[in-house]
Design goal:
Elements lengths: L4 E8 L8 H13 L3 H17 L5 H6 L4 H15 L9 H10 L3 E8 L2 H9 L2 H4 L3 E4 L4 H6 L8 E2 L8 E9 L13 E5 L14 E4 L2 H11 L1
Helix pairs in contact: 1-2, 1-4, 5-9
Amino acid sequence: MDAPVYNTFYVLDLDRTLFDTIKATELMRGIIALHDTELAARLEQRFEEFSISGESFSMRDFIAESVNDEEMVQIETKYKQIALDWNLLNPGASELVEYLRSQPDVGFGILTYGSELGQKMKIEAVPLLKDIPFLVTPETYKGAQLASWRQDDDLYHLPDELGRGVTKQLVLVDDKPFSFKGLPIDCRGYLVKSVFDAGIEKIPSTVVAVDNLDAVIAAEKNIA
């Protein structure tokens, strides 16, 4: 089967972009508190510490260090079950996905930094995200990673995890300014403002800072 060819492929960040990481951590803390209040308190403290520093934090990995494998499976199963009754998406996330799905010659996927198991757990807890291809990366400079996908045919060849398609242009949507470092000049991006706005003045000229995902949709409609 031939790989799909897109005019534009949107690379979407997970935590604090599509996914409400704070709300998800609160949910997990509540689940843990039913069994181990001390572990729940330590989870909350560690999350706050990482949030202040701007570093990524894997709540699943943190919990797994304190429980056995069987308990971790039970916790993760409970988390996914209860998450179905919670809205763990940020405002505008559903609308953005719906908009992208409605556009011809457009593809999209999730590129997220963090723990493979931790990020997979988050994605699987949200029905809307489960069908979206995703890639967990160890790279913090996503712009440079996107640049590495360009081949001699001047097209960007997507990794297997994102569908193995090819595209003329990439659009990166993320909440951290440093994620855009190395973004190719023929690609564009949207910085969704968050608590990690330090360095916003250093984002490339092809990146637009927006307040929310609804603003991304509005901007893309103007371009179209």
